[in-house]
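Re: Re: token formats

Sure, here are both.
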Amino acid sequence: MPPEEATTAPGPAKPPTIHDVARLAGVSTSTVSRVLDPRVPPSRSAAAERVRRAADELGYTPHSVASSLRRRGTSTIGVLVPRLTDTVMAILYEELARACQARGYFAVVATTDDHPDTQRSAARSLLQRRVDGLVLSTARLDDPYLAELRRTNTPHALALRTDGHSPASVGDDELGGYLATRHLIDLGHRDIACVAGPAYTSSSTRRRDGFLRALAEAGITPRPAWVRESAFSMEAGEEAARALLSGAERPTAIFAINDNTAVGVLSTAMRAGLDVPRELSIVGYNDIPLAGRLPLPLTTMRVPFRDIATAAVGLVLDPAAPDATVVRPPTLIPRASTAPPG
């Protein structure tokens, strides 16, 4: 009989090296080093483009491996947000900066316009500057770049959004969507619409899930046309409200899963001559400073940004389980934009 073959369990994947990039791009390691050096003006040569494509394909980032980051620590944390013109992201960044400062670190921010390619480029730039880890509020469901960060053992955590795999600090969005909708149901509303946000974020999908759970619990059948995907912006709220309020039948209440979209809904309703809240109740989400200072203060769900930010920084600096998730509950803040129907 042939000798029994020894079987060995595969070990963890090794992070790509500069030699791997050079081999794939067909250049020398010194060329790779020069092209990926942030201190050198970017080259647009064919060789440089091959190097950048090879680095992307392999998931190679200089100094991205955890041991390298710790050995060459700079006491900085890189923060990625979609944009700082979004009040929610500005608040989150300020809280992350405060949490970093409390741990003796400095937060450096980069914006991505919520675009995956820009996220990858911004993260690489931060890692090349030898930050000690990343906090990303840009996560998409099944985000391939986050899989890269996990594979290369790069210290990172997600904030407000999660892909379900990387360490994350989030609000309990499903509970928040449920409580917001339950508030409207308890006021007597049954014709309730939802401005549901983008489908690629966990925060949107889970708030929508909470909305649907509350309707189901109350025996209310949701109307598909009244659950409208949107962006996180006032303009998106205005567009969704025009569609929802222009039909022969219209809702008596709208749950917008973001305060910016809720402000857009409110603006459109008032321009249409509707009496808010007697003819239309509106609930937002996040409790940005503007929400309570509008001429008609907005009912909303308050998100504990400080707690979420503190936990996110902790997940970077004190790594727990690879898929650790910290969840913080939101709080309903009733204001003048909601009332019983009619």
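Second one below.
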Amino acid sequence: MLSRTIRKSVLDTRIPSSALPPTFLLPNRARYFNSTTQHVETPPDNFDASQLPASETSASASGLPLSKHAQSKLAKIPSPPPPPSKPLALSKSIKELLPLLAVQPSHYISAHIHGKPYLVTPGDIVRLPFHMPGVVPGDILRLNRASAIGSRDFTLKGTPYVDERIFECRARVMGTEAEPMRIKEKTKRRNRKVKTVRSKHKYTILRIAELRVKGLEEIEQ
């Protein structure tokens, strides 16, 4: 009977786990037994971290896997074409028809600016639907990405881009424009708050100053 009474008193006076102090207030030995162990898998011997992209390297370093949404975004980003390092090799047909294209006037070009194509000729004014950063009026920009260059009778198409050593296309920054201020009121049902949103979109104006197809003598130098 006495042993049951002692056992019952001990059980009643036991401190519940919810009343224990946080782990950082416990001594080192108690903190060791209350902490969980981390399981780190060692990479294989033939693993090379330099082959991973920068985004995947940072995610793997933090221990967080990439989500499907992030992977789909990375897959949709087009990679820029590498700079031309090898000597330009022209086929027989291009060597025959390129001088005719260079001589014939009224050239046009399908230039790509920030991934969007613009079909322009010399003297045209292009109104970009965004504010190009880092430019001021009077700057000269060389447009080195083009999917097609042609004249009245000839057209040179790229796969996907024409080599930039074949042509020269330059545009002058004329300035920036801004549309009138837009004010829109946003409300929700059964809500007395009214949110006012203001937007004023800016545009960059370019003028195509030069468009020239190089000759075979300039390309083969």
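The first helix runs from residue 2 to 12. The chain has a mean pLDDT of 76.
- S.
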